Amino acid sequence: MLNKLKLIPVLLLFAAISVSCEKDSVAQAPVTIESPLTKKIVDSAGVVAQVFSDTLFEVSPGIVETDIHYLSTEGYSMRVFILEVDTKHPGLKLKAGTPYNATAYAMQTVPDIAKYTQTASSKVMAAVNADFFNTSTGEPRGIFVKDGKVIKTTWANARSATFMAVLKNGEVFLGDRNDFTAKQDELQDALGGGQLLVKDNQVLSQTDITVEPRTGIGMNASGKLYFIVVDGRSFYYSNGITITKLGQMLKACGSIIAINVDGGGSSTFMIKHPLADVWQVRNRPSDGTNRAVGNAWMVMQQ
């Protein structure tokens, strides 16, 4: 549910309140930008007025995280988390994560899904929530393929328009409903998605103008994936974004195709912490705790 409080642009708000306001407000000095993705987003996405923090680190070989705290062009505090995954890096693969690693519909948090997906020889290095789902049963709104078995071929509504898949040859594929029909026999794992945000390197116009926490997935011409989570529903921390601007950010990263997946309280960005053998949810899910979801994408290391 959207925050019912009327949002006041940060630039105006800080002129009217004490500088002793909350510690993580946007009243900070700008920083030197180090991350290549942050530079691309600032230069070409049209969503950033000022960057307040820019963090870049390697989760594991082939997986890089970029975290950005910025002031939006509308004057709001924003936090975005980006996972850049080299799908061609030796030992890395993607897997459709499901509750209890089963095909039956259910719901679990992303960390719990990871516990059931990980094996002694294949470790979960990162994960992001995926398709929209029935919040009573866990049934995904879009298509569902797991371990080469096609479980669901129907789409709940017009918003369920896309999917991401791992083909049987190991390649990653993003596409729409027509692509699913053509590729169905080639799919090893596939989870549905929402609106198509970028196609043929062009940002598509959207009718949904709501501002929410968002999760998106994009891919560049060489197969590199970009998982993005933008936090929202917290005025001083992060306010959320429209799906059009999410598409602009994914295109700026280099995506020639990008899709919207489940957002709101479902948006979850998790990594295997590089300094400790623990899974860490890096963003702040808007429910205040990790939401149980219908499925998620797991980045595995063998």
Structural class: mainly beta
> Could you tell me how far the N terminus lies from the C terminus, measured between alpha carbons in angstroms?
39 Å
- The order of strands across the largest sheet is 1-2-3-14-13-15-11-12
Give the C-alpha Rg: 18 Å
Mean pLDDT: 91
Strand count, sense and barrel status of the largest sheet are: 8 strands, antiparallel
The shape, in one word, is globular
Q: Give the helix tally.
A: 5
What is the chain-wise order of helices and strands? HHEEEEHEEEEEHEEEEEHEEEE
Number of strands: 18
Low-confidence stretches: 1-26
- Strand-residue fraction? 35-45%
Helix residue percentage: 10-25%
Features:
5-stranded antiparallel β-sheet, 302 residues, globular, mainly beta, disordered N terminus
